Amino acid sequence: MQTHVKTLGILHIVFGVLGLLIGISVFLLLGGIAGLVAITGSGSDAVVASPILGFLALVVLGFTLVLSLPGIIAGFGLLNMSPWARTVMLVLSALHLFNFPLGTALGAYGLWILISPEVTAAFESRARFA
Length: 130
What we know:
Elements: H1 2-40, H2 44-79, H3 83-96, H4 102-115, H5 117-129
């Protein structure tokens, strides 16, 4: 089961980093489009569209940070077998169930691993010694 816990941690780190990369890419794309609209636009539509696109880029970046960073942090916590990481990962795994199809698979795998008696006992024994 120790291998499954490490695998779950690595999967969450990978998915979190991919989410961050996608979020940063969309941020740069929307920010670039907003800049192009501001530079090339001459009408009143450009004045309105540019700040909206810039704000949308910030919202996308913030959204991906909020969704990706906890998975990355908890993934590293699972690799270190930190007791707090199990609690965080249980919550994240439950939330991932709504993200069909890959998130559902990752969430179900996470819940299956983290709820098993063997893993629960391992994390509880680590918590006693911490």
